[in-house]
Design goal:
By secondary structure, this protein is an alpha+beta fold. It folds into 2 domains: 110 residues, Phosphorylase Kinase, domain 1 (2-Layer Sandwich); 208 residues, Alpha-Beta Complex (Aminoglycoside 3'-phosphotransferase, Chain: A, domain 2), CATH 3.90.1200.10. It is built from 12 helices and 10 strands. The strands form 3 sheets. Strands 1, 2, 3, 4, 5 and 6 form a 6-stranded antiparallel β-sheet that branches. Strands 7-10 form a two-stranded antiparallel ribbon. The longest helix has 27 residues. 41% of the residues are buried.
């Protein structure tokens, strides 16, 4: 169903040779590099697992992530993800330690970063069978909510993320994201969607002031973390990370698409417990008006992501049939937007 879409990812032997050469340069000596194992999960970055000897500070099991030139959100940069993981590495947030990154295509052909590999499996957000017992769900839900609050409480101002927040204020955080996603829509849409034109105007007329500027994961939900025996081992998939309003992540967690037909946010935690734990961790009250705003914005992000998937498949030759299927979800998402516009928060 899924083919490698970058020239190098499609030629794993060449990729492995270039990776070995790069790692030997960075580590200052010869290494033993295992075969690369391709992981089919995810819709965007291409992921490989491998091991090396000697390792980074005795860590030998590693992950390589490549941002293909024709991927879902291309063009990519590995720097924001690397900066986010570096900013969070000494906090209570469970994140893999990132070791190397580059956006130079001369090295591996695509932007990439290398991090440690964590144990665990990612519970899937779709369908009724995610393999979780009620006890595990409750345990994971508490950790899931607390980790999000910890992300939003982390001081990023002296980290590598600060360069991406130049000119950003509590007052214009929403505007920055609107500008980004509207530009992406206009770049990727193969046809016009009047509902999106309307809702972009609606959102611009009602932009809230952020309670604070926080690290925003951008895709925080079930499916984007690893767990073992009811314990979250690592929060993953930071490709949409940015500095912004913490309500944006909260609204994404609460999307109906990730509830799997349950009343639980991301099939893990009640809305009330999510809000309560977030307020306890951050000291910030959750605003009903901001949640309504960012719930609409989240649906817009989702619609534009579906449009991006169709574009990547139809025009960029990213031959993942899951992206072709994204087109079937555009109209239902637009209908959800329409219904939300009728609600006065």
């Amino acid at each position: 169903m899924i083919e490698a879409t970058s020239e190098l990812a499609g030629n794993v032997r060449s990729l492995r040779e270039r990776l070995q050469h790069y790692l030997e340069q960075m580590l200052g000596g010869q290494i033993s590099l295992s075969p690369l194992k391709r992981y089919p999960s995810g819709f965007s970055w291409i992921t490989f697992g491998f091991s090396i000897k000697p390792g980074f500070n005795e860590v030998s099991e590693l992950i390589l992530r490549l941002g293909p030139q024709n991927g879902l959100y291309a063009p990519y940069s590995a720097e924001p993800q690397f900066a986010a993981l570096a900013a969070l590495k000494d906090t209570v947030v469970p994140v893999p330690r990132a070791y190397l990154w580059s956006d130079d295509p001369a090295i591996l052909g695509d932007p990439f970063f290398i991090s440690e590999k964590f144990p665990g499996a990612a519970p899937i957000p779709w369908g009724s069978d995610d393999g979780l017992t009620t006890e595990h769900r409750q345990t994971l839900g508490a950790q899931f909510a607390d980790a999000l609050g910890a992300i939003h409480s982390t001081d990023w101002s002296s980290s590598g993320l600060a360069k991406f927040a130049v000119g950003l204020t509590r007052e214009n955080a929403a505007l920055h994201q609107l500008d980004k996603w509207e530009a992406d829509y206009r770049r990727w849409a193969l046809r016009s969607y009047p509902m999106l034109h309307y809702v972009f105007g609606w959102l611009r007329a009602r932009m809230p002031v952020a309670p604070q500027l926080s690290i925003v994961h951008g895709d925080y939900r079930l499916g984007n973390f690893l767990a073992v025996d009811g314990q979250i081992t690592a929060i993953l998939d930071w490709e949409l990370v940015h500095i912004g309003d913490p309500h944006e992540d909260l609204a994404w967690v609460c999307l109906p698409q990730y509830r799997g037909g349950t009343p639980l946010m991301s099939k893990l935690v009640s809305r009330e417990e999510l809000y309560r734990r977030h307020e306890t961790k951050t000291g910030l009250p959750v605003s009903a008006k901001s949640m309504h705003y960012y719930s609409l914005f989240s649906l817009v992000k989702l619609a534009v992501t579906h449009i991006a998937g169709v574009y990547a498949f139809e025009r960029h030759g990213f031959h993942d049939l899951r992206l072709a299927a994204f087109g079937t979800q555009i109209a239902p998402t637009l209908r959800q937007i329409e219904k939300m516009l009728e609600v006065d928060p």
